Amino acid sequence: MITFEDVTKRYRDGTVAVDELSLEVPNGAITVFVGPSGCGKTTSLRMINRMIDATSGRITLDGQDVREIDPPTLRRGIGYVIQQAGLFPHRKIVDNVATVPYLLGWNKKKARARAMELLDLVGLDPGLADRYPFQLSGGQQQRVGVARALAADPPVLLMDEPFSAVDPIVRASLQDELLRLQSELRKTIVFVTHDIDEAVKLGDTVAVMRVGGRLAQMAGPATLLTEPADDFVREFLGRDRGIRRLSFISAKEVRLRPAPSDLVTDEDGRPLGWRTAEGLAAHGTFNPETDSLRAALDAALLSANGTAVAVDEEGRVRGVAGRDAIDELLAEYAPPAAGPAPGASRGGTSEGAPT
Amino acid sequence: MTDEPLVRWDWIARNWANGGPTAISALLENHVVMAFLPVLFGLVVALPLGLACVRWRWLYQPTAALMNVTYSLPSLVLFSIFLSITGLTRSTVVIPLTFFALAVLIPAVVDGLASVPDSVRQSAVAMGFRPARRLLRVELPVAVPVVLAGLRVATVSSISLVSVGALIGQGGLGNLFIDGWQRQFYTPIVVGIALIVLLAVLADGLLVLAQRLLTPWSRARRTA
């Protein structure tokens, strides 16, 4: 566990980058620091591995004050992924990944073997091992960056806006990849971003910071979307909070009914569309086992008759859910009418207040 | 003079290796030594000085200013100054040329280190490199293409500048120009020019080759 205790970073010119920050980063989960530029999120991250030293306060790593640890030794035990990947241009991919093992004094053979394992883990073709960084795409370079950070199997991973320099499609796939990796590795990850959608997608916990280095709210993404602590957080979360919140509710509980006869399927039972006088009309599908309520609602909205089609992994029809069934679940998960909900970190709900 | 051919091959044959100090081969050898020593000394001095200029930024402006002033002095002036100290020796040419090489190489080292992307330097710090190892294993290797580009300029200009030393009798192939000029005899002049150009092209080619071998990772190579 990483803890910040009244951590302040004040620069010589008097600028306060981080102001009395106190928070706990739980083990084995992704904690996202998010906020506009100038909120001190990157400074906070870099104080963990002492690339920046705090002016006052304490940061502890599993109970030990990081200031008591020699910086290079501390850093070799903490993975770090930087925005532009920051790969060493003069080293082959395999040697880039093996950087920390080399620093730790592993022999070349063992370090390279480990590097090859990691390339595989992050989904890179082992044929890329002998290439140089300039021969790789931005997305591939960023995967190498992740592999390099993981090479010595550090329990903690710091990620500083790692996916912000790649295009949206690559970014989405890198995010999915990170979530997949994390489900296997269970690292303690601190992830910095200015993108609230990325924060909500990746974070088990999201710490929203405001300019001047103060913590505005720290909560799980669903709570954050339902109960923003104040106007700053509400505004930062942006539009569509109500809809986005549905991403965190499983579609498992949607009450399904048997497929009606006007749903046309192929011989394997995969839906083709709704039978109408004019021919087949559009239908939307969702998988109740893996999808969210947001996907179920989306499927209903995409269907010509407002009925979402539930399918299994193979895409075969399991049943259908009308808007009434979805609405039932929506009502169940409606935000509390008044006052703070149990578990909310602070503040009440002031839905309807002008933003 | 009017019937004089541009090149008299028999003169070249007789004077290529006549055993004396004015033999063409002896002058060539002299030229090579006097051109390369300044570059070598320059590199040895420019590396630590360049590093110091990066480490202590305030040092760079005065160093660069001093080097630029030196570079603007005609080489002949510098030769005359050192003539009174080191006399009619090779040093009188080699020392000033070392200053000229420094004027090119110090900025090359500084610019080379500045060419290391910030993300690369920061990730080296974050991986746990200590400063000395980071310099030797990451920053200097990444700076090599820029330093080599400076080395090419310094080498070629050094090869050409040596000939001015002929005015004090230490000019390597440049002595052929004086000889030819005094006797109104073209052959030595043509031979001198041809050999100097050849030497410059050869040296530059070797440095390009060295760059290819040293920096197979360089992006520039793909577009070159």
From TrEMBL, chain A:
Gene3D superfamilies: P-loop containing nucleotide triphosphate hydrolases. Residues 345-355 have a biased composition (Gly residues). GO terms for molecular function: ABC-type quaternary ammonium compound transporting activity; ATP binding; ATP hydrolysis activity. Keywords: ATP-binding, Nucleotide-binding, Transport. Signal peptide: none annotated. Residues 334-344 have a biased composition (Low complexity). It comes from the Bacteria. Residues 2-236 form the ABC transporter domain. Residues 332-355 are annotated as: Disordered. Its EC number is 7.6.2.9. Belongs to the ABC transporter superfamily. This is ABC-type quaternary amine transporter. It comes from Microbispora hainanensis.
UniProtKB/TrEMBL annotation, chain B:
Keywords: Membrane, Transmembrane, Transmembrane helix, Transport. The chain crosses the membrane at residues 32-54, 66-87, 93-114, 159-178, 185-210. PROSITE patterns: ABC_TM1 (PS50928). The keyword Transmembrane applies. GO terms for biological process: glycine betaine transport; transmembrane transport. It is found in: Cell membrane; Membrane. It is a multi-pass membrane protein. GO terms for cellular component: plasma membrane. Residues 28-208 form the ABC transmembrane type-1 domain. Pfam families: BPD_transp_1. SUPFAM superfamilies: MetI-like (SSF161098). Belongs to the binding-protein-dependent transport system permease family. This is ABC transporter permease. It comes from Microbispora hainanensis.
